Amino acid sequence: MLWKLSLTGIKGRLKDYIVLFSGLVMASAIFYMFESMASNEAFLKSNSIISMVVFVFRFGSVLLGIITFAYILYANSFLMAMRQKDYAMFMMLGAKGRKIAQMIFIETFLVGIVATAVGSLLGIGLASGVNTLLVNQLNLQISHYAAFSPQALVVTVIFFSVLFLIAAIFNARAIAKKSILALLRETSTPAQAKQRPILLLLQTVLGICSLAIGYYMMSDLLKFQLIGIGIALVTIVLGTYLVFRSVIITILGLLKKSDGIALKRLNNFTLSQLSFRIRDYTQMLSMVAMLFALALGALTVGLGFKNQIPIMAKTAAPYDLYLNNAQAVSDEKITALKPTTDVNYTLKESSDSIYFVKEEFDDANLLTSVYDNLSVDVHYTKVSGEQLATDPTQQDQLRQYLLPDQRSKEIKIVDQADFDRLSDPESSLRMIQVKDFQSNYEALHELAQENQTANSSETPDMNFTQRVFVYDTYNGIFSGFEFMGFFLGIAFLTMLASCLMFKILSGANSDIQRYAMLKKIGTRTSLLKGSIRKEIGVLFLVPGILGMIHVLFGLQMFTTLMIDPYHNLWLPFGIFIALYAVYYMVTIWLYTNIVLEPKKK
Asked: Measured in whole angstroms, how far is the alpha carbon of residue 245 from the centre of its chain?
């Protein structure tokens, strides 16, 4: 009987459970994927570069687990609140509190276990796509990768089973302790009394000052170090809470006092609804703003690390490709690259010296990197033949393109006539640049490998002048951050948007009478829908904006790790806003169906 009632309860709130279910599925899928990456020993041992970021995936799993635990407790409490009248009715009909608690336990645990099973299967599917993602999109060469990891599956199932067991016990005990009257009247509890203006002013000032202190600490972490992170965490959380508790309430009060705004259409009703809700929503909106900042920050930093890989490679290696003994390379492969720069430097090698032609460097200057000011716009220094002939430091820039057994020899820059009189063996060093390194990566990598094979003394593991090898090294280090940031950001977004959705929907039943009364006095449905869009829009927009501000200031922490953390910022922000907007539209649709089209009993 309890199973039947539990299944009936889930069916009755199917839309709400689907939202919760989708969030739990995504969380368990991503958790599995992180675990499968970090626990795949054969994969890690055969890919030494990638194994450097194992801690990234472990950290992602722990952080995701903490947020998932909070999400499950919060989301389930909303669903329980929406069904409290049903439970009260069962108790009025003679059902014992112990049986109600068992029913709630079954509902919570059943949804959780099914979500974990589906999420694990989805995680295996997502993990199988990682190989394609890393190889094709991130240009990593990997082997021994297995999408299915028994260890990751066991960890995922045990972790989420324990989570749902705790959540089920928590929900069951919370409902069982309440009386029938408390269950019936809990959703109709009136808003708190208005705060005194002086207290609001003090909270407003304290909230803004707290945020300012936190932002300042994040702007100079080299100076404040770990103490700065601790202070920033406390002050930003406190400031976020006080902003919603005082600043937003103050702004709403000022808008209500403006006749030009409040008396236009249903604005006064909308502002009153927001004022009524905002005090009860303070903790929720604060949590959503912080999760929003974490999610968007994870996505932004992850993509930021990926964006700086080609910049760092370009800074370290001015040329897209260089070829030793280039006379042995097929010109057809070079022509297919459509190079923007294709320079041949002729050289002759004796037992103790390497000779180059001065005029060739005067006609096509050697490019050298500038490391003193790393930026998105990479600049090179042009070195002439005269500079190479007189400056040993500049000769060292040329020396790095020679083969290892040539680098110990003396470099001599001579005139063409003197060069022609030398009888030593002649070869050439060919320097190539292309219009788009990324699109020509495969061809460039193939030619770099051929150059390495043809010149057996070449050591690619230590080669930081061949751009494709530099790119591979940085890519192996930073691609893990991109991978973690993207999926962790999506997981956090799913949870925070779901929590906010549940909070809004949990108060929808008590709003039915308000909207019904407006309809009875002749208010058009279009105006009511417009009011709903504005009200829910504010509840979504305010924590979103504050979360974005947190991210914009928080990126200052990564200025020492990234060339420009603000580069191409529109991409992660655009992705996030688009996904956030989807949740906003879904919430409007669900809320509208509840308050404007209530089910007839």
From this structure: 28
Is 415 a residue whose pLDDT tops 90? Answer: yes
What tokens does 322 get? 């260089």
Query: Quick one: tokens of 409?
Result: 């020899």
Please tell me the total count of domains within the chain.
3
Helix (H, G, I), strand (E, B) or coil at 319: coil
Helix (H) or strand (E) holding 342: strand 341-349
Residues 6 or more apart whose CB falls under 8 angstroms from that of 300 comprise 485, 551, 555, 565, 569, 572, 573
Tens of pLDDT, residue by residue over 173-211, are 766 666 655 555 555 545 455 567 788 788 888 988 999
pLDDT (0 to 100) of residue 133: 64
On whether both 176 and 235 belong to a single domain, the answer is no
Residue predicted with more confidence, 494 or 424? 424
215 and 278: one domain?
A: yes
Question: Helices 14-39 and 2-12 sit at what angle, rounded to 10 degrees?
Answer: 100
Phi, then psi, of 428 in degrees rounded to 5: -140, 155
Whole-Å CA distances, 325 to 346, 433, 580: 9, 18, 55
Mean of pLDDT values over 445-465: 73
In the predicted model, what is the mean pLDDT of residues 489-494? 77
User: Which residues, at least 6 apart from 346, have a Cβ–Cβ distance to it below 8 Å?
Assistant: 356, 357, 360, 419, 426, 427, 428
Which of the residue ranges 56-65, 182-191, 302-311, 339-348 would you say has the lowest mean pLDDT? 182-191
Beta-carbon count within 10 A of 14 CB? 10
Under 8 Å between Cβ of 369 and 316 = yes
- Show the domain range for 582: 193-316+469-601
- Cα separation, 505 vs 77, whole angstroms: 12
The Cα–Cα gap between 294 and 488 comes to 9
Q: What's the mean pLDDT in 97-110?
A: 74
CA angle 360-362-365, nearest 5°? 90
Last residue of a domain, one of 419, 440, 465: 465
Do 223 and 143 lie in a common domain? Answer: no
Nearest to 39 by CA among 151, 167, 160: 151
Assess whether pLDDT exceeds 60 at residue 140: no
Q: Largest alpha-carbon pair distance within the chain?
A: 111
Same domain, 424 and 473: no
Last residue of a domain, one of 443, 465, 487: 465
